[in-house]
Amino acid sequence: MKGFGTDEKAIIQVLTRRSNEQRLRIAFEFKTLYGKSKPTVVPVNPFDPREDAAVLRKAMKGFGTDEKAIIQVLTRRSNEQRLRIAFEFKTLYGKDLVSDLKSETSGKFEDLLVALMTPLPQFYAKELHDATAGIGTDEDVLIEVMCTMSNHEIHVIKQAYTASDLRVPLLEDDLRGDTSGNFKRLMTSLCMVSTFLDNN
């Protein structure tokens, strides 16, 4: 990537022939050498999903909504922890947390909360669909999702993509139809390698 032009073939060969762990190690070394990185979310510890569910219930009960309390809980938990909170919320109060969040919020804030509460495979499937839908392609989203996931994770995302209520074709078909050249080869390779490895 240094100097004039980019050796896309070399990038494709390196990224598609490494495991996710190896790609993450490469990213770490790249950051160490060149100062670029990718943010991560770390699960909170100690974690009490029942207590978090109670805080959210209190924040949405009665007149008005305590948006600050909702933000404090949901933005400081990993996706897995947020899903456990939703389970406890349903168990304790017999209500769907996402439905309550939707009824108590609106606009971009509502969109953000719904995204935070979406299981990761479904979230990434929707992001990939939105990146290839309509005119133009959001290649940054394709790179962020396809190049940072393990082969197994891509396989699970592909299943969520096909099973979604968006009535879409296979992920690899959308990637082939919305990309071209070496970028198309990279996306298709990442998609197909996950299928090959998961079938063996």
From TrEMBL:
<comment type="similarity">
    <text>Belongs to the annexin family.</text>
</comment>
<dbReference type="GO" id="GO:0005886">
    <property type="term" value="C:plasma membrane"/>
</dbReference>
<dbReference type="GO" id="GO:0005509">
    <property type="term" value="F:calcium ion binding"/>
</dbReference>
<dbReference type="InterPro" id="IPR037104">
    <property type="entry name" value="Annexin_sf"/>
</dbReference>
<keyword id="KW-0111">Calcium/phospholipid-binding</keyword>
<keyword id="KW-0677">Repeat</keyword>
<dbReference type="GO" id="GO:0012506">
    <property type="term" value="C:vesicle membrane"/>
</dbReference>
<keyword id="KW-0106">Calcium</keyword>
<protein>
    <recommendedName>
        <fullName>Annexin</fullName>
    </recommendedName>
</protein>
<dbReference type="GO" id="GO:0005737">
    <property type="term" value="C:cytoplasm"/>
</dbReference>
<dbReference type="InterPro" id="IPR018502">
    <property type="entry name" value="Annexin_repeat"/>
</dbReference>
<dbReference type="InterPro" id="IPR018252">
    <property type="entry name" value="Annexin_repeat_CS"/>
</dbReference>
<dbReference type="GO" id="GO:0005544">
    <property type="term" value="F:calcium-dependent phospholipid binding"/>
</dbReference>
<dbReference type="GO" id="GO:0005634">
    <property type="term" value="C:nucleus"/>
</dbReference>
<dbReference type="InterPro" id="IPR001464">
    <property type="entry name" value="Annexin"/>
</dbReference>
<dbReference type="GO" id="GO:0001786">
    <property type="term" value="F:phosphatidylserine binding"/>
</dbReference>
<dbReference type="Pfam" id="PF00191">
    <property type="entry name" value="Annexin"/>
</dbReference>
<keyword id="KW-0041">Annexin</keyword>
